[in-house]
Amino acid sequence: MATLPILSDQNLSNSAAELFEEIKETRQTEYVNHFWRVMANHPEQARRVWEQLQEVMAPGALDPLVKELIYIAVSTANNCEYCIHSHTASARKRGMTSEMYAELLEVVSMASQTKPYQTRPTQTNPDQPRAAWSQTRPTQSNPEPPEIGRAHV
């Protein structure tokens, strides 16, 4: 439930109206949803969010469909109904099939079910008490993820 007004086109500032036109053009639609209509109460922040979203969701090492699938998974974990619906629609436009969506939800469900079993990372050196987590997680200087099973259960 929005705690700020959902602005109509008639109540937009000039900068918000320009942003809405860009959103419509980019998404090839005449519809601007309530998320952006609430964000329009602070047009500068709405612009920053829109630009960052365009940058993050653009093709890169991960293709846009994979990014949408990740967004759906995180939105499901965060229980954000708007984001789930928005990014599911976007993923479908990018080629997500019903089978892919069902499998994605199975993965999200499994991750949710196994959360209670999580433990702190295992020690990599028994002579070193409480080995630092930073030794087993990816960092800028060590971008490789830990070996399977090494940092978890």
Please tell me about this protein's structure.
This protein is mostly helical and 153 residues long. The chain is built from six helices and no strands. The longest helix is centred in the last third of the chain and has 17 residues, at 98-114.
Q: What brief labels describe this structure?
A:
153 residues; elongated; 52% helix; mainly alpha
Strand segment tally: 0
Average pLDDT across residues?
85
Question: Helical stretch count?
Answer: 6
Biggest beta sheet summary: none
Q: What global shape is seen?
A: elongated
Low-confidence stretches: 149-153
% residues in beta strands: under 5%
Topology order in helix (H) and strand (E) letters: HHHHHH
Percent of residues in helices comes to 40-55%
Gyration radius (Cα, Å) is: 20 Å
Distance between the termini: 38 Å
Structural class: mainly alpha
Task: Kindly summarize this structure in a few lines.
It contains 6 helices and no strands.
